[in-house]
Specification:
Blueprint: E1 6-10, E2 15-17, E3 21-23, E4 28-32, H1 44-49, H2 56-62, H3 66-72, E5 76-80, H4 104-133
Antiparallel strand pairs: 1-4, 2-3, 4-5
Bound molecules: protoporphyrin IX containing FE (HEM).
Residues 7, 31, 33, 36, 40-42, 46-47, 50, 55, 58-59, 62, 64-65, 67-68, 71-72, 75 line the site of protoporphyrin IX containing FE (HEM).
């Protein structure tokens, strides 16, 4: 099972309107390739390494066939303005509540850990002195 994986591609074809001329779109095309990962002839690892970023060069460098370009259409999600993509979001975990608020019991345990062996030692020495003198 794959989690949702998409990559971006900048428009290669200029958009043309007769009389107005052509211009290149500054928008990115988004492709969700989750369902294609297992079937991609180039393997899922190359696809995965191209997700979450502009994969135009990765895609073009391979020299994909016309049929590959046609296949792309079924994974097309829509266009996105790259300036609206948030920069890398740094994850800061939510502050955890501090459970052991009561430090008293911790202190008592530490004190007992120190006092109990001391008491046993004292008792042993006491018995020894008492039995010797007897
Ligand atoms: C939805 C997007 C994509 C589709 C539909 C697609 C489709 C295909 C197809 C049909 C092939 C077989 C060869 C061909 O017909 O050209 C192929 C090969 C390949 N693709 Fe993709 N591909 C996509 C995206 C990518 C991306 C982003 C990469 C990133 C590097 C990539 C890398 C490769 C590689 C390395 C091969 C193997 C080329 C070879 O062995 O000759 N593909 N792809």
């Amino acid at each position: 099972m794959y989690t949702e994986q998409s990559f971006l591609s900048s428009s290669e074809d200029p958009k043309c309107i007769s009389g107005l001329g052509c211009w290149y779109s500054n928008l990115f095309q988004v492709y969700n390739v989750t369902k294609f990962l297992e079937d991609h002839p180039g393997g899922d690892d190359v696809l995965l390494s191209s997700t979450g970023k502009d994969a135009t060069d990765d895609f073009e460098d391979v020299g994909h066939s016309e049929s590959a370009r046609e296949m792309m259409e079924q994974y097309y999600v829509g266009e996105i303005d790259p300036t609206t993509i948030p920069k890398k979001v740094k994850y800061t975990p939510p502050k955890q509540p501090h459970y052991n608020q009561d430090k008293t019991s911790e202190f008592i345990i530490k004190l007992l850990q120190f006092l109990v062996p001391l008491a046993i030692l004292g008792l042993a020495v006491g018995i020894r002195i008492y039995t010797k003198s007897g």
